[in-house]
């Protein structure tokens, strides 16, 4: 007996796809085998009343062994026989099966407690309410549709799902958003390279810089969205390949403005140089398992882009001079916080010195920078609704 698809089973029960008169079938078989009913049940070691309850569909808790034995005697596929038995179950028993399926679906896929704390779920123990929230958010009518149309295409190539349910939720939300946004522009690698060399000065504009760059990237076929960080995921960003087009997710991990720009350039390196490798896996999460050994190259690229080591060697003597850092940042067309951020990294990397909290006052929040991108904050009604807002941002004339 193969694994039972409960969703399909329930659908088939109500769709009336399997129909067979079991009593007539039993009469045919005992006649064919030349035995009486009593003899047949004795050989099967099934009590007469139990048999009648199963065959008539009135058994409240049918014994699986009895079902298998009777199905074998009647030469009926066990899955079909179970369906026939369930078809005659009362509404209460059918509802309990439906509920078990929903509980399995929620427990397997979602950290209900964490998502409730985050505001995605309302504080409720109503299983129907929780399942409906998930299905509506992702745009599906049933659990089966969710699993066939979202889970299967997303994980069929990678053959892996995360044990961290929050990370899995984050991935599914991003993937579904990219599919809904469906960037109409063709991906053009050469045009992306043209855009790339012009990005740096926009980091100086906290309010509109990131928004302007993301619109330019959308125009060359690269979709960038922003999803709020989810607890326990430890992901700064990710690159997806959806419909043969590169898509980037940024998140507010660490909440710092320079981190968002660093992550964007990191992911753009993946788009330019790791497209085929990522395509085989559908997506790549930065800071996750480095399955293709591509993380350090992307980090180096982003670092060299904004502040190569020669710049660090110059500014390190003046790092406590606010005026000098300000002027240095302007001359190099980067936001001042990026200078402090990379100075801190070089000090740790080269001299094992920690300046982790030394320049916190120079790090603006990324909140203003991402606000125009319609960030996904997890209290939206649906991915469809969010995607429409994101498309409106990118496609406005």
Provide an overview of this structure:
The chain is mainly alpha-helical. 58% of the residues lie in helices and 5% in strands. It has helices at 6-15, 22-33, 37-44, 48-56, 64-74, 78-87, 91-109, 112-118, 127-138, 143-155, 165-181, 189-196, 209-219, 257-273, 275-279, 295-306, 309-315, 322-331, 336-351, 367-371, 383-395, and strands at 223-227, 237-242, 245-251, 283-285. The protein has a four-stranded mixed sheet with strand order 1-3-2-4, sandwiched between helices. Strand 2 (237-242) and strand 3 (245-251) form a beta hairpin. The radius of gyration is 29 Å and the shape is elongated.
The N- and C-terminal alpha carbons lie at a distance of 58 Å
| Count, helices | 21
Mean pLDDT: 89
Output the helix-strand order. HHHHHHHHHHHHHEEEHHEHHHHHH
Number of strands: 4
Approximate helicity band: 55-70%
The description of the largest β-sheet is: 4 strands, mixed
* Stretches with pLDDT under 50, minimum 5 residues: none
Sheet with the most strands: spatial strand order:
1-3-2-4
What overall geometry do the principal axes of the alpha carbons give? elongated
């Amino acid at each position: 007996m193969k694994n039972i698809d409960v969703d399909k089973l329930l659908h088939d029960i109500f769709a009336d796809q399997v129909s067979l008169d079991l009593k007539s079938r039993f009469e045919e078989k005992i006649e064919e085998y030349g035995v009486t009913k009593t003899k047949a049940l004795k050989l099967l070691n099934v009590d007469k009343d139990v048999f009648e309850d199963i065959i008539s569909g009135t058994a409240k808790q049918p014994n699986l062994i009895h079902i298998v034995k009777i199905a074998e005697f009647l030469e009926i596929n066990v899955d079909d026989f179970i369906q026939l038995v369930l078809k005659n179950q009362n509404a209460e028993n059918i509802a309990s099966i439906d509920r078990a399926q929903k509980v399995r679906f929620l427990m397997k896929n979602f950290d209900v407690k964490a998502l409730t704390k985050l505001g995605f779920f309302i504080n409720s123990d109503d299983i129907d309410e929780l399942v409906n929230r998930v299905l509506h958010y992702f745009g599906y009518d049933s659990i089966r549709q969710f699993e066939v149309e979202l889970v299967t295409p997303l994980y069929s190539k990678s053959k892996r799902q995360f044990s961290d349910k929050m990370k899995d939720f984050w991935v599914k939300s991003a993937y579904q958003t990219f599919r809904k946004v469906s960037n109409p522009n063709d991906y053009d690698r050469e045009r992306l390279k043209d855009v790339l060399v012009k990005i740096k000065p926009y980091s100086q504009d906290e309010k509109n810089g990131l928004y302007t760059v993301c619109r330019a990237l959308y125009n060359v076929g690269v979709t960038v969205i922003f999803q709020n960080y989810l607890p326990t995921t430890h992901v700064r960003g990710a690159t997806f390949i959806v419909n043969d087009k590169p898509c980037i997710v940024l998140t507010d991990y660490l909440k710092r403005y320079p981190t968002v720009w660093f992550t964007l350039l990191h992911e753009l390196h993946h788009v330019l140089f790791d497209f085929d490798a990522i395509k085989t896996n559908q997506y790549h999460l930065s800071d996750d398992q480095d399955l293709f050994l591509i993380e350090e190259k992307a980090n180096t690229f982003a670092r060299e882009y904004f502040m190569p080591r020669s710049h660090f060697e110059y500014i390190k003597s003046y790092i406590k001079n606010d005026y000098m850092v300000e002027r240095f940042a302007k001359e190099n067309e980067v936001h001042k916080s990026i200078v402090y951020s990379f100075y801190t990294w070089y000090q740790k990397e080269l001299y094992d010195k920690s300046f982790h909290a030394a320049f916190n006052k120079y790090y603006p929040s990324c909140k203003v920078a991402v606000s125009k991108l319609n960030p996904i904050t997890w209290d939206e009604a649906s991915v469809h609704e969010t995607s429409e807002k994101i498309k409106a941002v990118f496609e406005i004339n």
